[in-house]
Structure formats: structure tokens, C-alpha cells
Amino acid sequence: MKVEQFDKFDFFTGVPDSLLQPLTDWIYLSKNHIVAANEGNAVALAAGYNLATGKIPVVYLQNSGLGNIINPIVSLLAPAVYGIPILFVIGWRGEPGIKDEPQHMFQGQTTIATLESIQMTHHLIDKSTTPNDFENALKKFEQKFANGMSCCFLVKKGAFEYAEKPTYKNNYTINREHAIKKIINQNPGSIFVATTGKISRELYENRISHEKDFLVVGSMGHASSIALGIAHNTDKHVIILDGDGAALMHMGAMATIGTSGLKNITHIILNNAAHESVGGLPTVANKIDFTAIAKACGYKHTGTITNAEDITEKLKCTKDTPGPNFFEIKVAIGSRDNLIRPKETPQENKKTFMDDL
């Protein structure tokens, strides 16, 4: 289905999803649009748009973000509360019968049941969906919108089409995988907790053994809190390899880490100012100062790195200087096409990690 079918809507917000990339590429190029920090934020943004204009906003997300939207849906949007209507467009990762990554499988199996549990009327969009199908579904949705109810298009893999491809870029020069290699070489005995997406895959590919690595394959934005829970219960040095999109998603965790008083934790954000693992849509991370935020949150030692030659020197304190420590490394967008995925299951990763710890 061509994404231009959504042209009647004026405002879009959400968190990118690879299944929805044709839609988000089109939105980025042609529509009033805000990339939200997380899916719950997107719902609140959309509610504000509706309150200001009376029009129906569109919120896009991957089904992994359903948990983040349930609270504002049931406690803010619901007809029993304010009755604020929103059109949701949700990418269906882990659809039953379709091979996907392990973090998506249970979410995919429970997606429709989750929508039904919050009384969300939904309509499936797949490769066979016609413009008439889309318009007929919207007519049914409009009846719900009039009664203050929200509705959802649940989008299967390969359903959307869009010919143009925007260019996402930044002005940073450090290769992210090269930076990760340097961090590993400098801290061979440390525990690593790596965020969702390509950062985890690059850590996995560049460590000889993986018993000290916890790969956060799902639960975007929570790697730093997982690491804090580990560091609070061990004397070993714990390094967080975070992404800018993930850090923004649950940035309140930085305040908890910074004020924790833990000496054995180092938080590193590899900032490419993009949601690279799900298509490349930009984040706001090139417009804010993560290091100043970290310092204000109470991290003991902080720094920003923009040149690859400075990584080793500036990260000398990661292990030997009492933390919490924080560093932002500004990295280029891009990764190797042949980057491998972990061979072990998440359960195997957990057991090996716990046994070593």
C-alpha cells in the first residue's frame, strides 16, 4: 500500500520502526512531524495536538512500544477519562508464522490480545491492502473517533511502499565499531551491558568471549538501569554501552545513576543522532549536551569525545577512577553490512553471564 494514503492527516509523531520505514521516510520528507523520545511521549504529544486543533493525530510505533503507550491510553485518552481520539499505526514485529528476532516473538504473539485488552479497534494492513480497503477502514474508525475512542492500523512486514529515500547523516567522524573496539581493549575484564540494536552486535563481534557481556536485545532504553542493578550488587566494574535514541527514551535513569554513589559504573553513550537500527530517522541528540546533563545528574567524571585519537586517553579513568563516570562519544552513522548476530539464545547469554558474575 502506498503511504501517501495518509495524506489527509496533518500531524505525525512516534518512535521509528523498520517495518514502517516507508511511512516514516515519507513523513520525514513531507509532513508536520516530531520524533518523540518514547512512545508514551508520542501519545501525549498527539493528545496536545488534538486539544489544540480538534483534528486526529497519527502516532506510529513498533509493537514493542505497546507497553509505553498503555498508561496514557487507559488513563488519559480513554472515553471514560478525556476521550481524546488518536490513530495509531503499529508495526507488527514477531507476527506468528514469520521468522523474527527472539525479542520480538512473545510480543508478536500477544499484540492482538493486548490491543483487545485496552479495547483498541484495529485493522490489518498487508501487501494486499487496497486504497478502498484503507478508506473503508478509516470510515469505520471515524465513528469511533467521534465517540472519543482511538483506533489502530496493525501493519505487517512489507505492507508499505514509498519510492523516495531521504538521506540521514551527521558531521561526526568516529566509526562506532572502532570506538567499541578501543573501549573493549582498554577494559578487558569489565562487565559490559550493551543497548538494543547494532551496538550489541558490534560488542558481540569484537569480544573473544562473551561471558562478561549482557546484550539487551529488547526493552529499548533500559540498558543503563539494568547495568545499575548489576553494579549495585557486585564490586566488578560495569560499563554501559548506550545509544542516543535509547538514552533519550528513558533519560530519567541518568539521574538515578548519577546520584547512586556507585564507584564501579561507567556510562558511555555512542551518539550518532539517529535511530540507525530502525531506519535512520534523526533523534534530537545533536541539539542537546549529554555531558552537561550527566554532570548535572551527579556523575563524578564526564567528558565528550569527538576524535578517535582521544578515546584511549580520555577513557583512562573508566576503571581506575571512582565513578559514576560518563562519556559521550560522537560517532558517524553506519555499520558493516556483514555484521553478525549473536549465535546464542538470550537464555544462553543470561546463564553464561550469571555464572561468570
Q: Give the biggest beta sheet.
A: 6 strands, parallel
Shape: elongated
Order of helices and strands: EHEHEHEHEHEHEHEHEHHEHEHHEH
Question: How much is the average pLDDT?
Answer: 95
Instruction: Write down the Rg.
Output: 21 Å
Query: What is the helix content?
Result: 25-40%
List unreliable stretches of 5+ residues. none
Strands across the major sheet, in which order?
2-1-3-4-6-5
Q: What fraction of residues sit in β-strands?
A: 15-25%
What does this molecule look like?
This protein is of the alpha/beta class. The protein is 39% helix and 17% strand. Helix 6 packs across helix 7 (198-206). The longest helix is centred in the first third of the chain and has 16 residues, at 102-117. The protein starts with 10 loop residues before the first strand and ends with a helix. The mean pLDDT is 95.
Topology, pairings included?
Elements: E1 11-14, H1 21-30, E2 32-35, H2 39-53, E3 58-62, H3 66-77, E4 87-91, H4 102-117, E5 121-125, H5 131-146, E6 151-155, H6 176-186, E7 191-194, H7 198-206, E8 213-215, H8 223-231, E9 238-243, H9 244-249, H10 252-258, E10 265-271, H11 290-297, E11 301-305, H12 311-314, H13 317-320, E12 325-330, H14 346-356
Parallel strand pairs: 1-2, 1-3, 3-4, 4-6, 5-6, 7-8, 7-9, 9-10, 10-12, 11-12
Helix pairs in contact: 2-3, 6-7, 10-11
